[in-house]
Amino acid sequence: MNSQGHILIVDDDTELVSVLLDLLSPLGLDCTAVGTALAALAAIQHNRFDLVLLDRCLPGASGDDVLRQIRSHPRTASLPVMMLTALADEREMLEGFALGADDYLAKPFHTRILVARVAALLRSRRAEAALSRTA
After folding, report:
1. What homologous superfamily does CATH list for 5-134?
2. Backbone angles phi and psi of 48, in degrees to 5
3. Using one digit for the tens of pLDDT, what is the confidence trace for 93-126?
């Protein structure tokens, strides 16, 4: 089966990571999971991803720090990032969008909603790539 995309999952909750892998892998998505901000930044530096699912609360540096790094580098500035976090009040969500998140989903989440949002972000990524190839 051809890969439908490569997703980086950044979360220190191993049970949640397992659920995400079980949800996304059968859809033909290649998934890489890491549990810290430093591991996320290393993975992004050495791989090409189509989407990042990013927890805001990580050991060491925060998910916010990861997002700032992603947005600050030309190679990754347009990489779609979905914040997937328990920080779910209006202020936290607006802050996540202000930092550059493309989507924000509060934990706990409905699995079908997560899958639909992932599919939408990947669709947008593919459309953007197709447009840049024809330009």
Report:
1. Response regulator (3.40.50.2300)
2. -110, 125
3. 999 999 999 999 999 999 999 999 999 999 998 8
